[in-house]
Amino acid sequence: MKYSHLRFILILGILLPLKGYSQPQFFRQYWMEYNSQINNTNPAGRPERPRVGDRLMSTHPEHWSRTEAQVNGLIMINIPDTIMNIDHTELWLELWGGHPGTAGKRFQINGGRVYPIPDRPTAENNCEYIYPVIPFEFRDLVKGNNAIQFGCDRGTTFWGHFIIDQLAVRCYLKQDDYFLTSTGLNKFFAKPAVRSKILSDNTEISLDFTGTFEDQIAAVHYFARYAGYDANGSENENYWHGYTHDRVYKGHLGTSDKAPFPVNWNTSMIPDQPGPMAVKALVEFKNGLCFWSDVIEGLNFPGKRLRVQIFYCTSLPAPFWSRNNQEKIAFIDLPDDISRIVNAEIHIRIWDGGEGNIGEPFTLNAIPYKITSGKAIHDLVYTVNMVDPKDLKPGINEIRLLSDTEHHGIEICWPGPALIIK
Fold this sequence. Notes:
Oligomer: single chain
Structural class: mainly beta
């Protein structure tokens, strides 16, 4: 059996330290707000989604006159916090990776240090939609308006270009912050609670917290660290799963707004793990503060659990993008014996520029599956479709993609389609 194109990433995720919050901490989160008097970032399309172009577009011999070529990549963020009260900061992005081949995605704050934005799949001519969390030096900030300048290079494409759907600056507070100490919140402590560290197919998780703060909590969001489908384009299967889309948390374990803030974690189709899993909670307070909880480590599946595996495409077209009736084909290689499969599902992330007049734009072994919105929404669409095991084949399973739209069409985002099989 051939290994998937991402299998080495899973192994690397075991060897390298996993990113995550090891210490509970409060933070405030400031989302970008569009200001037409300052920002000239999306004159064509939705103005609240800033565009970023390579710096040579204004003299491009073919595209210089298009309004999208006149963007400046500048976003203003107001930070009312006193910078001296900040412990550390990070930038949280919802980002369409842009034209395949775009390279050198980056930003700087108030003319300070230049910070790279992950762009390997896009730079290597793949399509991607990512949710990077990028630490930056909080001393780059000022109290009040902050200028965040984004840029990119043309790379190997005809037009270096990407779009920021959403952006937030997270300011983590020092433990002796006046607001925390004056309200007693500096004594707040929380940790997810489970009945057993041996997980069932449906495991209930709740929040164990100290103090009389129940009425001040607006919602609790739960996140798990495990090896599974890379639904946020991180290039790592083993990470803290979950992200925001249009500022709403998605792909996480779940959200609850009523004490003791329980959620049900369905683990039945999570692949077999290389090591223990973990869970943490994000507590949102009604006053706008957020708090990362302590982490529960050492979660495992029972020894007699049915085997669950994930299979990616053996290779991806670069880019995996159909438009103007250009059919794209990829393959998923399954074992020679698939007689014992009891459940299967196919995961896929696309940037939905529309299928046009094509009735069956995506098929697996000639069986159609719905992967688009049907409305050409020009946004990310992530679908999970159940697959009848009888429709799978030993060895090669063929995926076909087709759109007849003139422009964007259907872009399959990294890491591409994957079958999860029990």
